[in-house]
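Please fill in the sequence for the structure shown.

STRUCTURE ENCODING:
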C-alpha cells in the first residue's frame, strides 16, 4: 500500500481513539527525523587533536666548584702513648692502679713476684762476701811472703805465687760485685713503674696471671694531639701528596677535627693492597680517644664540574640518562642523552661527560617522558 508522506489512507478518527492517534503521530515524526538525519552528508572534521605538551621543570646547566674527596676509616693513636710491658717473667701479685687513673713518672703500676729474684740476689751477695774474705786472706798472705822474700827466707817463686793469688782474689771479688749489681737492677724490674706522666689505659691482666716480656700490661697516654692512621687503596697512590687536607667526621658527617697528611708509606701492604698514611690531628676539645675508629675524609682537590639533581637522572640497563629540552622556545622537545656520573655532592650528581654548560636539563616529570616528547617549561 502506498501513500503520500504525512497523509494517512484512512480517517484516523474512524479506527483509533484519540490517545492512540497521538502515539502514532509521534512515532511517525520520529521516523521522519531519523530518515532526514541519515540523509545528511558527513562533516569534514580533522583527525584527533595532537597530545598537549608535558609541563616540566627545566634547569640550565652551569659549572659549579666541586671538592673532590674520599672517605676512609681511620684509627687514632696517641703521639705520646707508652705501651707497658714487663722486663721480666713472673706472676702478677699486685696491681696498684686502675684504668683511667692519672699517674706521674715513677708511679708504681704493678708488682711481679720477686721471691725467686731476691733469692738469686742473696746467693750472689753471699758469694761476694766469700770472695771478699778470700781477698783479705790473700792480702795477708802476700804481706807475709813479701816480708820473708825481703829477708831472703823464701824464694822469688813463692813471692810471685802469693802476688798472683792476691790479684786473682781481687778479680773474683770485682766479678761477683758486678753480678750482684746486675741482679739487684733486675730485682727493680719486678716492680713496674710509670715511664711518663699520663692516664692509665686498659689493664688486661689480673692478679695471679703469669706474664712474659711480650705481655701488654697496660698503656699510659698523655693528653694532646693524636695521629690518624689511614689505609688508602693502592690505585689512589698517584694522588697522594704530603700536606693534603684530612678531616675527621662524626656520625652525622660533621667535621670534628682536621689535619694534613704528614707521612706516606713507601710500601704497599701485600695483604690489603693499601698504603698507610698518617695525619696529626688536634684534640683540643677532647672529643677523640686513642684506638678510636673514625671516618676520615681526604681532600684531593677542587675543580669545576656540571651538577644535576638526583631526580633528573634515570638508569636503564646499568647506564645513566638525562632528558634535555632542545629546540626553540614554544616548540621544545625532550631528548634523552646518555651521561657519565661522578660522586654525589649533597642531592646532586657530578656529571663527568654528556652535559655541557648552557644545556637545558629537565629535572621533573621525567617518568612521563620519552625521546621526542613535546615539553613546555613550568612557570
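FILLED IN BY: designer on duty
SEQUENCE:
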Amino acid at each position: 500500500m502506498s501513500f503520500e508522506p504525512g497523509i494517512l489512507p484512512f480517517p484516523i478518527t474512524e479506527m483509533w481513539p484519540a490517545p492512540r492517534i497521538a502515539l502514532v503521530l509521534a512515532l511517525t515524526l520520529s521516523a521522519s527525523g531519523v530518515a532526514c538525519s541519515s540523509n545528511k552528508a558527513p562533516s569534514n572534521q580533522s583527525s584527533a587533536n595532537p597530545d598537549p605538551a608535558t609541563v616540566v621543570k627545566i634547569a640550565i646547566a652551569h659549572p659549579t666548584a666541586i671538592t673532590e674527596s674520599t672517605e676512609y676509616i681511620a684509627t687514632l693513636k696517641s703521639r705520646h702513648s707508652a705501651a707497658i710491658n714487663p722486663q721480666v717473667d713472673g706472676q702478677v701479685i699486685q696491681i696498684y692502679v686502675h684504668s683511667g687513673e692519672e699517674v706521674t713518672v715513677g708511679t708504681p703500676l704493678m708488682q711481679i713476684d720477686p721471691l725467686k729474684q731476691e733469692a738469686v740476689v742473696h746467693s750472689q751477695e753471699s758469694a761476694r762476701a766469700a770472695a771478699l774474705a778470700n781477698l783479705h786472706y790473700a792480702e795477708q798472705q802476700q804481706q807475709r811472703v813479701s816480708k820473708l822474700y825481703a829477708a831472703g827466707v823464701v824464694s822469688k817463686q813463692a813471692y810471685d805465687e802469693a802476688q798472683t793469688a792476691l790479684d786473682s782474689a781481687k778479680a773474683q771479688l770485682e766479678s761477683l760485685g758486678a753480678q750482684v749489681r746486675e741482679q739487684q737492677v733486675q730485682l727493680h724490674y719486678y716492680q713496674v713503674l710509670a715511664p711518663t706522666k699520663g692516664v692509665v689505659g686498659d689493664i688486661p691482666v689480673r692478679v695471679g696471671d703469669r706474664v712474659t716480656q711480650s705481655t701488654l700490661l697496660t698503656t699510659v697516654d698523655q693528653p694532646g694531639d693524636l695521629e690518624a692512621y689511614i689505609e688508602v687503596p693502592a690505585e689512589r697512590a698517584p694522588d697522594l701528596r704530603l700536606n693534603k687536607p684530612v678531616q675527621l667526621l662524626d656520625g652525622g658527617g660533621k667535621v670534628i677535627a682536621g689535619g694534613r697528611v704528614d707521612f706516606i708509606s713507601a710500601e704497599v701492604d701485600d695483604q690489603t693492597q693499601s698504603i698507610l698514611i698518617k695525619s696529626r690531628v688536634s684534640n683540643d676539645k677532647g672529643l677523640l680517644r686513642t684506638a678510636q675508629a673514625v671516618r676520615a675524609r681526604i681532600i684531593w682537590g677542587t675543580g669545576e664540574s656540571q651538577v644535576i639533581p638526583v631526580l633528573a637522572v634515570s638508569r636503564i640497563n646499568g647506564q645513566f640518562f638525562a632528558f634535555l629540552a632542545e629546540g626553540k622556545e614554544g616548540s621544545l622537545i625532550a631528548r634523552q642523552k646518555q651521561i657519565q656520573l661522578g660522586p654525589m655532592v649533597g642531592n646532586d650528581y657530578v656529571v663527568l661527560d654528556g652535559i655541557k654548560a648552557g644545556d637545558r636539563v629537565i629535572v621533573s616529570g621525567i617518568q612521563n617522558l620519552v625521546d621526542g616528547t613535546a615539553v613546555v617549561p613550568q612557570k
